[in-house]
Amino acid sequence: MTAPPGRILAEVLAAEGLSQAGFARRTGLSAKHVNQIVGGYATLTHRTATILERQTGVSAHVWMLLESAHRIPAEMPVELAAALRGYLDDCYEENGMP
Asked: Are the beta carbons of 6 and 40 closer than 8 angstroms?
């Protein structure tokens, strides 16, 4: 399992000097929900990914890929998991993400 997409969101918020509560107000999401995303407890939906795209400039598609990679089951075949992680690494680079 890879890091939750919320870890990337936390880095974006830190870079912008924005708190989770401030981000919640800006997006219309609850502060609790933003905190759960950052902590990796809330599953990203397409709706939430679209909101994140509008606020961060990172495409909803990338947010959903991050969510999928985070939720990769431990029993997934090693080759498939490696291919998916390679694809995600390429997406990170294309979008200037760490």
From this structure: yes
